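[Meeting: bench + compute handoff]

Bench side (C.D.) handed over the final construct sequence. Compute side (W.E.) agreed to return the predicted structure before the next meeting so the bench team could plan truncations. Sequence as handed over:
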Amino acid sequence: HVRARRALQDTVTAIRHKLPVAAAGYRLFPNGERHLRSRAVLAGIYPPELLAQSVAIAERCRFSLDSLRYEYPEELVPPGDTASGHLRRLTEAGLGRRYPAGVPARVRELVEHELALIAELEYEAYFLTVFDLVAFAKGRGILCQGRGSAANSAVCYALSITEVDPSRMSMLFERFISRERNEPPDIDVDFEHQRREEVMQYVYAKYGRDRAALAATVISYRPKSAIRDVGKALGLDLEQVDRLAKNFSWWDGRKVAPERIAECGLDPASPVVAQLLQLTNTLQRFPRHLSQHVGGFVISRGPLCRMVPIENASMPERTVIQWDKDDLDALGLLKVDCLALGMLSAIRRALDLISQWQGRLLSMQDIPAEDPAVYEMIGHADTVGVFQIESRAQMAMLPRLKPDNFYDLVVEVAIVRPGPIQGGMVHPYLRRRQGLEPVTYPSEAVRGVLERTLGVPIFQEQVMQLAVVAAGFTPGEADQLRRSMAAWKRKGGLGHFEERLIGGMRERGYNESFARQIFAQIQGFGEYGFPESHAASFALLVYVSAWLKKHHPAAFCCALLNSLPMGFYSASQLVQDAQRHGVNVLPAEVTVSGWACSLEAQGGKPALRLGLNRVKGFNQAAAERIVAARAAGDFADAPDLAHRAALDRGELGQLAAAGALASLAGHRRHAAWEVAGIERLPPLLAGAGFAETAPRLAVPTEGQNIIADYATLGLTLGRHPLALLREGLRQRRLLSAGEIAMLPHGRLARAAGLVTCRQRPDTTSGVTFVTLEDETGMVNVVVWRDLAERQRRELIAAQLLGVYGKLERQGEVIHLIAGRLVDLSALLGRLETRSRDFH
C-alpha cells in the first residue's frame, strides 16, 4: 500500500515462491512504485483525460455480491409434494415417535409456531437437508446429535436432529431463527469423528462435487509460522530458525519480543535479526493459506462455480469454496455443519463393547436417567475422560456445585466458561446454591426467566428473555442484542443497546442499579456466552459418558483408547485412572491382541487388553495379518509369526521393542536379538532346520522397561516412573500428590511430578494452570503471571517439575500456589514424556 512496505512485499513474494529473497531475482518488483497513490499525486503524473477515462471505466464496473441468487436443492421433496407439506408430515411422524402417549400442548404450540415461521422464511429445504443427513447416519449406525441454537427447536427434536426435549427446557426459538435476522438458520450436527467421512462422502455422492463443497478457513500468521517463513526468506540458518520458532509458546501473544530472540543466543540489535523481528511482527494476522472448515457444507441447486470460487482440496474427493463461513453467511448461502466429535465415537464403541460382553444390545436410550451413583461420582470430581467436565477447571467446580440432576449438568457445562466468569455470575450462583446468599427477584417476570438459575443469568437465552420481559424488546430484537454481544469486543456497537435496555427497564419500574448490573453482565458475556440449548445437548453426553465410566469402567477406558486423539488426557493417564477404578489392564501381546484395545474375561470381570494400535509406528494392515494368521493356529515362535503374518524386520522390531513378543521370544532384549536374525528364506530352504544357540542376555531392569514402555507405547503397566524416584524426591523434601492432599489450608509445601498438562486460558490474566502427576495422583498448580515470566524456561521446558509454594484449600478443591519452579527433568534420564497444552 505504501513505499515503506517494499521489504514486506519482497519477503511475501519470496515466501510464495519458497525461495530466499536473495534468490528471488526477477520475481520481485523492480522498485517500490507499485503502491496506492493519492488522487493529488495521480493528477501530477497522468493527464486529465486518462484519469477521466479511468473513472468512467470504474463507473461501468458495477457488481454486487447481493445479486448472486442462491437456490436450495430440490430433490429431497417427493414428486407432487411441496417442501412445506413434506416437512410437516415428517415432523408429525417424529412427534408420534417422541410422544407415543400424546403430544403435550406446549410442544404442539411450539411446533406450529416454528413451522409457520419456517414456511414464511422459506427454510423448509434446509431442514429437509439436515434431516436427510441425520437419517443416513443413523441408518449406518453412526451416532450423531444436533447442538447449538438448533436445540431450541421443537421441529429439530421431532425430526431426531437434536435430543433435547423442548418440554423439559425453556426454549427460545428466535435464538435459532428470527424474522429480523436476514440469514439462514445454523444447525450444527456432531457425528462420530472417525466415521464422519462416510457422511461427507454421502453428501458428495448425492449432490455431486459440482453442487456440494466445504467452506474454507483462512489461516493467518502467528509468531511460530511467521518466524519460520520470514527466517527462511531472509536466508537464516534453518537450525537457527527452528530454534527460534520452538522458543515461542502459545501464551506469548502475537508480538515477537526481543528477549525471546536473545534467549536463543541471537543479538536482537543485529541488522538481520532486527529485520526478522520487524517483518515477523508486521506479518502477524496476515492470511497465510486456506484450509478446510471443520465441516461447513454448502449445497446448491445448480453448479456452485456459478456463484462462488471453488477448488479441489488437498484431501482426495473433497471440494472447497475459497470463501470462509462468514462470507457465506453474509450472502445467505445454506450451510450445513457436519462436525466431528470424538466422544460420540467413544460412546458408540463403549456401547458396542458392553453389548458384546453382556450378550444383549445396549443403546443410549437404555441408559437409566438420574442415577444417584453417577452424580455422586461427578460430585467428587472423579471425571477423567468424562465429556466436557474432565478439565482441571471443571474438576475444581464440581465439588462446589455438586450436581445432583440433569439440569445441574446443563449449568455445570455452561458456568465454567469465560462469559459467566467475566460477567461475575459464578460466585453469586455458588453462594446462592449453598444457601450463603438470599435469592431475590425484582419482579415475577424476571423470576420466570432467572428462577432456574437462582436469579443469576448464565445462558444467552436468559439475556434475550430478560431483554423481552424487562426492557420491552421483541424476540427478534433480543436476538440482535445477542449477536451484538458476540461481536462488541471486536467491533463495539453495544452503546445503542445500553441506552435502550437500561431505559426500557427504567420505564417498567426496575431500579437503575439492577438495570446496570444486567447490562454489565451482558458485557461480561461478550462472545463467550453459552446457549442453554447447546449446554443441554452437551449435558446429555456428559451424563451418558459419566454413566459408562461409573458402571463399565473397563469398556469406557477401552473405548477412549480406541478413539484417541480426543479430550484432555493421554493414554497413560486414562490407563492409570482405569487401574485406580479396579480395571485390570493387560499388555499388548501378539498371541492375543488385535489391532484395537479389547475386553477379555478374567475372573468373571472384563479386563482391558491393550491393542497393537498402542505400539508406536505399527500399522493396522500388519496387525490384521497377525489376527488372520492366528485364526489358523497358535504361533510356535517368532520366526513362525514372521513367516505366517508376512512381517518385515521393521514391524518385528517394533513389536519386540514394545514387549509384544514376550510370550514367543521372552524379554525385550532377547526378542530384539531373535527378530534381528529372522530372514525370509527361499522356498527351497523354508522347511530346513537351522540350529543357533541364543546368547544369554541380561533381563532389562525395571527402570529400563519403563523407559522402553513410554518410548514404544506411550504408557507403562509397571510402576509409575516417580515411584522409582520417590526416595530421592523425599531427600529433597518433595511430597507426593497423596501427601499434598492431606495438608491443611495455608501450609507451605513442596511437590514434584510429571507435567501432563499446561493451560493458560485467555481470561485468567496470565495465570497458568499446570497438572503434575505421580504414582499417587495429581497436583493442581497455579502459576501467576509474574512467576511465569521470571521462570518461563522451567515452566515451558520441564518434564519433571518441582514446585515450592503454598497450599490453598476450598472444601475438596486443592491448589498449590507456586512460589518457585525447579526443572528436575535430569532425574528422568532417558525417559521422555509429553504434556498436553491448551489455551
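W.E. noted at the follow-up: Residues 532-551 form the longest helix (20 residues). C.D. will use this when planning the next construct.
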